[in-house]
Amino acid sequence: VHRLIGEGEPVDLEQLIAGLALGDRAPADRPYVIANFAVSVDGRSTLGGVSRGLGGEDDRRLFHVLRACADAVMAGTGTLRAERYGRMIRRGEGLALRERLGLAAQPIACTVTLSGSVPLDIPLFADPASRVVVYAGAPVNVAGAAADVEVVALPAGAPPMRAALADLRRRRGVRLLLCEGGPTVFDALLGEGVVDELFLTLAPVLAGGTGPGLTRGLALRAPASLDPEWVLQGDGSLFLRYRLRN
Ligand SMILES: NC(=O)c1ccc[n+]([C@@H]2O[C@H](COP(=O)([O-])OP(=O)(O)OC[C@H]3O[C@@H](n4cnc5c(N)ncnc54)[C@H](OP(=O)(O)O)[C@@H]3O)[C@@H](O)[C@H]2O)c1
User: What are phi and psi of 95, to 5 degrees?
Assistant: First the structure.
């Protein structure tokens, strides 16, 4: 047992995360997949139905640095709807980091829908600078969207997440995929055994209520084991990084 909390060395999140070069770890058939979540100390991933309010400015910074390092960002349709997603990279420092890393100004935004119900009224679809890929198990009509939106039909009978990931890697050259949730999509990715790392912010709050935890669904049939990689702290939050033992 070691004491972790103390004075500690300050870290530069941008250097730390970009320096990991996580995309270099991508296998041939899918991107390297990292997930980023914030939860309350009692394990809830929402406060009043959204994640805002979990985590302070340091968590926002981690969120934006992870986005800035990713080739593509996946969010479930429930999260797109609840959080009203818009353009992925807006801050100048994020754009500058992507330029230094040789990445396109905007990561590909992607989502997976089995029912075909996509919240097309969110700002993301109205943004001409955004490129969106919708992996769909049912027809989706994206006519009228100002963003560059492509709908890719999921093959019937195949694991949907693996199919989406193979398309991202092979057809679009995505090496690092950041999954921003929500709990249902995270559960589906875990169930298909395609999550490599979890960045988890433990926010210094007890949320109470009946909101979801980190996973929701039945895809993860057996507990998944994790190896801790680091623990950082800022704003009273703990920033944990785990590797999945796939
Ligand atoms: N604290 C955090 O860090 C954090 C992060 C993200 C989200 N959240 C919160 O989480 C909530 C949303 O989470 P959620 O779990 O309801 O939604 P979600 O995971 O964002 O999206 C769920 C939807 O994904 C689709 N889907 C795609 N592949 C699937 C599969 N294999 N199995 C099942 N469904 C699949 C289904 O929609 P179709 O009907 O279209 O098929 C499903 O309803 C929001 O309140 C959000 O604020 C918190």
Answer: -65, -40
Cα-Cα-Cα-Cα dihedral sign, residues 158, 142, 189, 44: negative
Q: What is the DSSP pairing of strand 237-244 with strand 226-234?
A: antiparallel
- Taking only the tens place, the pLDDT of each residue in 23-49 is 999 999 999 999 999 999 999 999 988
For residue range 150-176, what is the model confidence (pLDDT) as tens digits? 999 999 999 999 999 999 999 999 999
Q: Which atom of ligand 1 is nearest to the CA of 191?
A: 31
Q: Pick from 35, 40, 75, 64: which is nearest to 54 by CA? A: 40
Ligand 1 pocket check for 44: Cβ under 6 Å: no
Helices then strands, each counted (H, E), the chain:
6, 9
Closest alpha carbon to 108 in 152, 50, 143: 152
pTM value is 0.98
Q: Is residue 141 within 8 Å of 148, Cβ to Cβ?
A: no
**Exposed / middle / buried, residue 23 (Cβ in 10 Å: 0-12, 13-18, 19+):** middle
Pocket test for ligand 1, best of 39, 42, 59, 77 (most atoms within 8 A of CB): 77
How is residue 210 written in tokens? Answer: 């009946």
Angle at the Cα of 60 (from 231 to 24), degrees rounded to 5?
A: 65
Cis status of the peptide bond prior to 53, with omega within 30 of 0: no
